[in-house]
Structure formats: C-alpha cells, structure tokens
Write a structure and sequence with these properties.
Layout lengths: L1 E10 L2 H20 L1 E7 L4 H7 L7 H6 L3 E6 L8 H7 L1 H7 L4 E7 L14 E7 L3 E10 L7 E7 L2 H17 L3 E6 L7 H13 L6 E6 H10 L6 E4 L1 H14 L7 E5 L7 E5 L16 H14 L2 H16 L11 H11 L2
Parallel strand pairs: 1-2, 1-3, 3-12, 5-10, 8-9, 8-10
Antiparallel strand pairs: 4-5, 4-11, 6-7, 11-12
Helix pairs in contact: 1-10, 1-11, 1-12, 6-7, 8-9, 10-11, 11-12
The structure holds 3-isopropylmalic acid and manganese (II) ion (MN).
3-isopropylmalic acid (IPM) binds next to loops.
Protein name: D-malate dehydrogenase [decarboxylating]
EC number: 1.1.1.83, 1.1.1.93, 4.1.1.73
Cofactor: Mn(2+); Mg(2+); K(+)
Length: 347
C-alpha cells in the first residue's frame, strides 16, 4: 500500500478547527481508496510563540523537509503576537525555503452556492508568485521615533522567479482552456512591471497555442467582477495575487470556499496546502468555521501526491454536500455538520 507522510500544522484560531475537519475527510478517503496517510502534528502557532519565543524551532524547516506534504490550517493571533512576527516566523519562511513558488488558487462556484454575482459559469485559476516580489522582506527603517522617520520596503523581481511562474502559468493554460492573463501595473511601475511584461511577451512566442493578454491590476479587479467568465488562468505577483485571490474568494461565495496550494513544481522540497482564509479570531471556538476551503485544499494535496481518484472523490463529496444546501451559507451550518456531510458522501 502506498503511504505518505504528512506534516500537519493546524496553527491558530479556526485553523485548528478546519485542519481537523480536513484530516477527518482525508482519513475516510484514504481508507476507501487504498492508500495510507501518516500525520505528524506540529503545534507551531502563536500559542507556541508565547511559550517558546519562536513560531517554530530553529530546525523547523529541516524537520519539515522530510515530509511528502504539509497541510496547514491558518497562522496568526494578532491580539497576542503581531502578524508581522507570526507570519514571518512560520508561513512565509516555509513558502520561501521550500521554493513553493506557485501559489495556486481556484475560483469557481460550488453547486448550491449562490455567490454575489449574476455570473455563474466562471472557472478561474489564479497563480500567484509566492517567493519574492512585494513580499521579499527587503527594506528597513531609519530615524525611528523621530519626525523624519523613514520606512523603505523594496520589491524584488528576479528573472528566474518571474520566468518560472509565467512558464508555470503557460503550462496550466495549455492544460486548461488555453487562455492566460498576466497581471501587472506597468503603466505606473516602470521597472519591475515592465520587466514582467517583457518576459511574458517573450515566453508567449514559445506557447503559440496559448492566448495571452496583459492586464493592469486595477482593470483585472474590475474584470473579475464584471466579466469573470472571460478568464481562465491568471498569473500575478505576490501582493497582486494575494489581493486578487481574496476577490476571487468573494465571487465564489466567500473565504470559506477558497482553497490553495503552495507548490514546489520541481518537487525538490515538500509543497504546502492551506485554505486562503486566516485564523479568524472573531469566530474561533464557536464551531461555525466553514471547513470546505480546507477540505478542498486537502483534495489539492492528494492530486499533487498522485492520488487523483481520492482527490476527485473529495471534490464530489464536497459537491454532494453543497448541492444539498449544506455549508453553502456562511455561518448557517456548524463545522461538524458540514464535515459530517462530506464524510457521509464518501460512503
Ligand atoms: C494568504 C494570506 C497571507 C499572504 C498572509 C497571512 C501573510 O493573506 O495566504 O493569502 O498574504 O500570503
Ligand atoms: Mn491573502
């Protein structure tokens, strides 16, 4: 029997609740699909930081390196630990250290989910550069506490990273409906974004079967609301992709439905799967978090591991639950009710 080692990092707030739900579904699907998942849970979180002074141990990255994949709930508890500390201590270092350069986020309506738009038949795959750009962490502050204090944060765009994310986008477009939207702001940002556009244009020649359009980020934001059906694969930088994927989550009915995969396409280190949403301290412990985004992310993990049938079974089970109206309206059903409906549909 095939066996996979999974590092489980539930994290903070509703991350713990939805990670448990996703794991329950994974156990059910593995039992019936004939493969085994072995979880090792890590308590790395803001609570862990309060105890130890770090979000994960100094050898945390090396510990994770040996796993086949990482399943993460959510990180952050700003009342206790500043987000800038918790995210730079756990989530962001994992993405960078394991070169999970492609952050893949699908946006489509599940059956039974209303969504705020009239459009219903959109199927967008956002691909976000996940290692550099506006999230490079290059910068500093000077003259702190004085009237002339200054803060500098520099975006970094390297040919290697821009080229590989665009190439990844072209490949995805080729495997889907053959359309690629490249998102920049090259009318205002004349170095990095013009550089990105140039690389897009050059790569387009290698993919004559893919129809490429370059959009500015502001126009893309409007298009995702006004004409989402016109989009197939959308590739964007780290920050632009972050913003667009919350918009994508909104048009698919809310953050409770938005799944994501942080992929290392070379498979030189583990990839990580997590819902797009955060730890939601306001509803933590209430038992009303929607686990669908985390369960869908778990399906993306199985797909990545090559357990395609298991991934499809989870997606079908989610669809069975939402078709029956379970988990479709934010706050209506409890986490356990939605999880139970998905698990039951796997029978
Ligand atoms: C996301 C989140 C993170 C990001 C935060 C928590 C740092 O918003 O995964 O979309 O911006 O990448
Ligand atoms: Mn985000």
């Amino acid at each position: 029997m095939k066996s996979y080692s999974i590092a489980l990092i539930p994290g903070d707030g509703i991350g713990k609740e939805v990670a448990a739900a996703a794991w329950e579904v994974l156990e059910k699907v593995s039992a019936r699909s004939g493969f085994e998942l072995k979880a090792t849970a890590f308590p790395w979180s803001c609570a862990y930081y309060k105890e130890t002074g770090a979000m994960m141990p100094a050898d945390g990255i090396e510990t994770l390196r040996g796993f086949d994949a990482i399943l993460l709930g959510a990180v952050g508890w700003p009342a206790e630990v500043p987000d800038s500390v918790s995210l730079h201590g756990l989530l962001l270092p994992i993405r960078k250290a394991f070169v999970q350069y492609a952050n893949i986020r699908p946006h489509r309506l599940l059956p039974g989910v209303e969504g705020p738009l009239k459009a219903r038949n959109f199927d967008i795959l956002c691909i976000r550069e996940n290692t550099e750009g506006e999230y490079s962490g290059a910068g500093g502050r000077a003259h702190q506490g004085t009237a002339y204090e200054v803060a500098v944060e520099t975006s970094i765009f390297t040919r290697t990273a821009v080229e590989r994310i665009l190439r990844f986008g072209f490949e995805q477009a080729r495997a889907r409906r053959g359309k690629l939207a490249s998102v920049t702001k090259s009318n205002a940002q004349k170095y990095s974004m013009v550089f990105w556009d140039e690389i897009t244009e050059r790569l387009a020649k290698e993919y004559p079967d893919v129809a490429v359009t370059s959009y500015h980020i502001d126009a893309m934001a409007a298009r995702m609301v006004m004409a989402p059906e016109s989009l197939d694969v959308v590739v964007a930088s780290n920050l632009f992709g972050d913003i667009l994927t919350d918009l994508g989550a909104a048009i698919q009915g809310g953050l409770g439905f938005a799944a994501s995969a942080n992929i290392n396409p070379d498979r030189s280190a583990p990839s990580m799967f997590e819902p797009v949403h955060g730890s939601a301290p306001d509803i933590a412990h209430l038992g009303i978090a929607n686990p669908i985004a985390a369960i869908w992310s778990a399906a993306m993990m199985l797909d990545y591991l090559g357990e395609t049938a298991g991934a499809e079974a989870i997606m079908a089970a989610i669809a069975a639950a939402t078709s029956a109206g379970i988990g479709t309206v934010p706050g209506k059903d409890r986490t356990e009710t939605i999880t139970a409906a998905v698990v039951a549909a796997l029978d």
